[in-house]
Amino acid sequence: MQADAARNKALEKIGEKLLKDGFNLTSLNNEELSAIAVQFTGDAPPDHIPRETVIEILSQQDSVKQWAMSVREKMAPKATEMATEQVRKHVDSIQAKVESKIQNDPMAAKMAEKFGDWLKDSGYTTVELTQMLDANKDGFITNDEATQFVQQISKSQPPQWVIDRLMDVMDSNDDGRLSVQEWWVFLESIGFEQPPPIDEFEDLEQELDDPPELTEAEARELIAQANLGAEDQQALDNGDELRSMMSSSSSLEPSSSIRSSDEQQHASSDSEETVEIPSKIVLDFEFKDIPSKKKILLTIPANVTVGASDDQQIQENGRKALSGQSTVEIEQMAREIVSEEFTLAISMITIEDINRNKKWFLDHCTDIIDKKLNTIGLQVLDIDVIDITDNAGVIEEMGAKAVAEHAAQHGTGPVDINTISWEIENSTELMIEKLEQSRLSSEADAIIADCYEHLCALKVEQIDRTLVADGEYRGGYTIVGEIDGGPFSAGVMFPADANDTILSLKTGIMINCVGQIVKWSSGRRLALLKGRDPVLR
Average pLDDT for residues 53-74, to the nearest whole number? Predict the structure, then answer.
């Protein structure tokens, strides 16, 4: 019992050492390798077997790999916690030094604040900013690199004394150079997130299904033969053969048993037949003369976004229905279903039903369309109705009635009386409201990922040259103003080919455009949209 306890204690210490050194067996001495061999193969390797051979044999054992995984699960959280605490203390120390510098230099404080706002408005992440700044990737940022970075983003040459002053503020240890760690601390102090830590043990889990090169029985046999001394050369030959079968890596990646050739062939066949259901398909429609329940013909331009369902049964439906179909064919099937079912949904309701409640109307259309889409593994993700008009003047009459009622109560009426008027926020406003409530850039990124194109009403309050953009938006202009009647304002950037139109607009007028939220400025609390098709209201 005492011997078992001693072995377990020794093995625990070996595990701690491996955890620290990245689970590389080459970091262990011969005595520690022997202890692992005894524990997992039942015998110690003889002295004449080369150390490299012993490492190769042990690194391929499932039992050793599973032990490595258990060590990680048991010890890694504690080690990570300790490392995180050390980093946090280091970060706090750097922040304290930077804050001390700023407090003693009001001008530097103002410059740092302006620089921070400029960085936040750039829309780049911590990693992206670092990649642009540390151009040679040596872990340090020079004044020249900082100057080139500012020039690259702003398209103008910054005064050298400004760069020198900023670099001095961020250089917390006054060693004359700015480390990437000091740069990250500065970014964190103004609201950016630190880059996620690298999990150096991730490969242990990712490689669970790799087949082993040598079974435990074969390993025991090899070591036992060597110990008997009768077949030393054969053992060495086996070791040579083993080395030729293995890669140079000796990391402990767990693996499953070797599958039979029939199983491998079956798995390969299955993978070839697997259907990848698209996660998002955006479909544009211009529905014309769709009859409502009262046979009034409606024209409804709309964008309908569909995608793969999370429901397992619906996914199974899709795998069966879409087998052998290409992405283009799947998109065409989805378009036909949405077109038919949207028309059916409209035929079941009146204009009054549509005008009464937008949410009810969109839910009604979604329910009808989903019944058919679910048969091919898809579901509706979003319906954006851009406009609704009719051929009988019913909507115009409803608008006129709304004008009269509004004027009687408030003395003024709505601007537009020719389209459906829902008294709730549109999708763009809802997404900006969510962004207002976000605190971390990762939260904002997740919200922006769910944004789609929508028709927007924008009040022109300010027109600026777009500074940070690519593609067709480079060299264009951005309009900043109240969006969709408030309460939020937003910036909408337009392609360069719309410059003449944008520059002809006067402050205070209203325009319509199609826009999609693509960035969120946490400093200015302002959403930035990519816009197109600006027209006067």
Answer: 78
